[in-house]
Design a protein that fits this description.
The complex is a heterodimer of chains A (508) and B (309).
Chain A lengths: L2 E12 L2 E12 L3 E6 L5 H8 L7 E6 L2 E3 L4 H6 L2 E4 L11 H6 L12 H13 L15 H14 L4 E5 L7 H16 L3 E5 L3 H6 L2 E6 L2 E6 L6 H9 L21 E11 L5 E11 L2 E6 L6 H8 L7 E6 L2 E2 L5 H6 L2 E4 L3 H5 L6 H6 L9 E2 L2 E2 L1 H14 L16 H15 L3 E5 L7 H16 L3 E5 L3 H7 L2 E6 L2 E6 L6 H8 L3 H5 L1
Parallel strand pairs in A: 3-8, 3-9, 6-7, 7-8, 13-20, 13-21, 16-19, 19-20
Antiparallel strand pairs in A: 1-2, 1-4, 4-5, 9-10, 11-12, 11-14, 14-15, 17-18, 21-22
Chain B lengths: L1 H35 L7 H19 L2 H25 L4 H24 L13 E2 L9 H5 L1 E2 L1 H19 L1 H11 L2 H4 L5 H27 L11 H11 L4 H24 L5 H5 L1 H12 L17
Antiparallel strand pairs in B: 1-2
The chains are: A alpha/beta (508), B mainly alpha (309).
The complex binds adenosine-5'-triphosphate and magnesium ion (MG).
Keywords (chain A): ATP-binding, Hydrolase, Nucleotide-binding, Repeat, Sugar transport, Transport
Organism (chain A): Roseovarius albus
GO molecular function (chain A): ATP binding; ATP hydrolysis activity
Chain lengths: 508, 309
Amino acid sequence: MSDILKAVNLTKRFPGVIANENVNFDLRAGEVHCLFGENGAGKSTLSSCLFGFYQPEGGHIEIGGEIANFKSPRDAIHMGVGMVHQHFVLVAEFSVLENIVVGTHESGWQLKLTDARKRVEGLCAEYSIDLDLDARVGDLAVGQQQWVEILKALFLDAKVLILDEPSAVLTPEESLRLFRIIDHMKELGLSILLISHKMVEVMQADRVTVLRKGKVVDTVCPANVTPNELTRMMVGRDVELRMVRDRTEDAERKFETVLNVEKVSYRDGRGKLALDNVSLHIGKGEILGLAGVSGNGQKELFEILSGVLVPENGCLSLDGERIEGLPSRQYMDRGVGLVPDDRFREGLIPEFNIRENMILGWQRHDDYTNGMFLDHKQIGSIADGLIDEFQIATPSGATPVNHLSGGNAQKVILAREFVHSSKLLLANQPTRGLDLGVIEYVYKQIIAKREEGYAILLASEELEDLLNLSDRIAVMSGGKITGIVDPLTTTVEEIGLLMAGGKEEQAA
Amino acid sequence: MGDLFQEAILVSILAGTVRIMTPILFAAIGELVTQRAGIWNMGVEGTMLMGAFIAYVVATATGSIWIAVLAAMLAGGVVGLLTAFMTATMRVDHFITGLGINLLISGLTLYWFRIYIKGRAQPTFEGFENVPIPVLSSIPYLGEILFTQRILTYVAFLSVPAIWFLLYRTRWGLELRCLGENPKALDIKGLSVVRRQYTAVLIGSIMTGLGGGFLMLGFSDRFLADITAGRGWLAIVAIIAGRWMPRGVLAAVAVFALLESVATHVQVLGVDIPHQIFLALPYVASIVLLMMLRSKSGEPRRLGIPYFR
Ligand SMILES: Nc1ncnc2c1ncn2[C@@H]1O[C@H](COP(=O)(O)OP(=O)(O)OP(=O)(O)O)[C@@H](O)[C@H]1O
Ligand SMILES: [Mg+2]
């Protein structure tokens, strides 16, 4: 097989960071080549250089054996390179079709989209993607937005496709579909550069290049290495791929109720019943796992428990005190921390720097104020301590968070909520986009919080992690809790059934 | 007799409304283009004032009001270039840029005005006359209200569907609206964000300059300090009230202009209330409108946020 896209001695620097240093990488025609590496290793940066979005300071890029001098993505697109970015680059107000067409100059000066529509419909049929081309993209579920991104790249006749963590935001079922699409692309002769932190996906690739701190460690075939060897190459030490909690003391624990949720219902802006009579409780020192396909009310539940939304019916109590309807600041003052699932939209202010984001929402805390004013010295030293503790890869605490790699941005939220909360920790998909080493660290932290006596609600799409960590697992479907199971006695099949709607649907 | 008199007053109020709408409409529709591209040009008031002043100088110096109109557009364009340089190239905060421009021009025009009229009686000019449109102007009532106006008034009204077409029916318009919602979506296709922002600011500023020029040449025969008297700000309020849609903006401008027209007719009607109170009406209305419209739905998502990669 011949090289189709190649980076030769590529170096890319940002102020204070060398994101890529003398990187040699080659993508062969018709292969799926995975880039694997820690958060901040430089995977997205390398992809953006190959796509012409960044211009490298050293080295060069070759395409089809010839030196390519990409001045902008336009040049790369002309040469048949397409890219799906780590964070969606979509216009929520536009329709699916408009998002696909904008900036492609596919129509004449007058906006006539009939030809474009035909081509997109053809692509949808080819890849069995089911999308309403006239739907407003902002109304689509996250998974569907990912199909829009993929169509955007395919629409430009990409021969080489760069997919930057496409499965991070997908449910397990959607990921399976994604990989069916990727397989089909391969059959059609496309070459794919795939970035992923998920071991199963990495092991499916034809070749894997491991990046570490901006440098290539090696390029290997997954057939010749074990997952453990790969992670060792990536982080330089052994990582527990599946965290298992020590359960020896579980029997002695009595979980005094910290949070009690009774018959809570919530209707969203469009009148849909997003939460339907949800009741649950979490005790001191207990991890309640929350399983379910995302979009089944988890987000609303988390927002209600943190005071962002007010329930329509039902009551919430924290340590026996009623809290529904209180402003969200009251929740924070009472020690509730929230890790939301959409990091850039809800968890961070991208233009603010790391230090500011580290205290976001908690800025009135006595530690951070000096009378009326923010005590920047104190904030700086606490934040810098957290940057060390969570090993956030950044030149300094003054870097704006939109300059961080995806995983490192996630760590800023985790650090903030972990240190500021004191009683109840609400974590919605906390490991999304994190590398395996950091996932291990995050789970260790969650276990430590459990030991400290926190009540913890942990939602994850990794069923196995929930089974290993939780004291009990609640399963959600269609805005309802369809069952609460004991992780030691349940089976994946039982949870799967509950996720699909549970007993009612079985009966019906 | 009384009925005829009331009818005449009503027609006159409405015809006045249409005329008063003209300069605000130019500015509002122009600024709408700018804002749809994500740039909050807060300097509308200043840009308009510059257009008015330059129109005055050129009209009195050359005696040609059409050359004065062109000069006003040019002046708007120059101010727009400065605005675009600050916001798109230097990525300075849009509000600070606008405030700076307003202060600068308010002072500058007054200073230049003093120099211009130094030691002589203030020169005046012959402003625009009505140009009735044949046939249409003889329709009862409507003819007088809509079709017996200055030429630029017709242009202003036609600019609304024209800009609508540009924004919603052309490829260029789709790209422009994309800038206001998510400029990165264009950037990753390798299209220049900065170049399109310049175009959008220039279109807005030239139209605003034209609005200022008409304010000068269509209503008056001499320049006064701060002659725009907040019309630029009304244009901005009209965009918010009109939810960033051409139709909505047109409606909001009509409301403001109607109130102002009523105010100017109050004297004629001999109502026993100080007419200054009526003159404040459009501004009071704009505050009330903004209070009523609590949600800013329709606002471009990235409006006013400088784009960095
Ligand atoms: N626009 C930018 N400005 C400054 N620094 C940046 C910028 N983009 C990335 N960096 C830095 O470059 C390094 C590599 O980042 P990159 O986004 O390539 O990591 P990554 O491997 O994709 O990580 P992740 O798995 O978390 O997405 C990081 O240290 C990051 O902070
Ligand atoms: Mg990345």
